[in-house]
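Researcher: Structure for this, please.
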Amino acid sequence: MSKSVKKFYISLIVIALLVIFFFASGPLYIVKEGYQAVITRFGSISGTHTVAGLYFKVPFIDQVTTYPKLILSTDGDLQRIPTKENQFIVVDTTSRWRITDPVQFYKSFKTLDSAYNRLSDIIDSSTRTVITANRLSEIVRSSNIINERTTGAAEAEDDETKEIESLVNVNNVNESVTRGRGELCREMTEDANKLVPEYGIEVIDIVPRQIKYSDELTQSVYNRMIKERNQVAQAYRSLGEGKKAEWMGKLENEKRTISSGAYKKSEELKGAADAQAARIYADAYNKDPEFYTFWKSMESYKSTLKNYDATYSTNMDYFKYLYSADGKR
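Model: Predicted structure, token format:
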């Protein structure tokens, strides 16, 4: 083999090794669908790719950092926040966000973990700012539907139920909601978006995942619920006592009416009976006056003499039938 041919083969081998080494060093990279890439050269940003595809880089010089274009989520810290009425509640929020400017994002954070930490602080700050400026009813409710249901139900209630509701709910009127939780969430999102554009981020929404009363407020709410239930029970008892007194009054009136009617009827019957007895006595007297006198005297002796132990004189007209055989003296 001649020296020229030998040099040719050596050159081919060197070229092949260089090609293999070149491709082994990774001059090509792929940006997947749903991702975007930032290319840095010697620590400076040299370019970005936001469309999926196959791209070229300078081996050992260019560095490729990829970020998702998809919507990401970050949870805020569980925090204790006072409302406008100075009532403390515990709020746990979550948010959705995305990277809109990979260059600014790289300059601000470089890694997603750093972005999560910073964004969590921003979300917590926006949440606290909005909640402290609003009432508790605005935070936990989204509309006035509870008031509308209460009004609609009250129209269909009977008089007794309305009376109880008037006794119980005099000082327990539901507050009207002017904005509601949905509007407050939008305000939180707007407040957070004032801070994040410089980071190449857009916050899509901030939503309270959980809202609960603090320990001291929980006990206060329980006590208020117990008080309200006691008020309802007392209202029912008061209404029951009132109805009882009403029915007892009606019963007493009916009792007196029945007694009066019965007394009137009995007196009428007694009068009729006395009249009939008098008539019978009169008829009997007219038939035999002497026998009538004798019989009445016997009845009088029976009822009178048994009350006396001794009679000291019988010389009176009263005893004419008792000591005279013919009833004459």
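Researcher: Any notable elements?
Model: The two ends are 200 Å apart (CA to CA). The mean pLDDT is 80.
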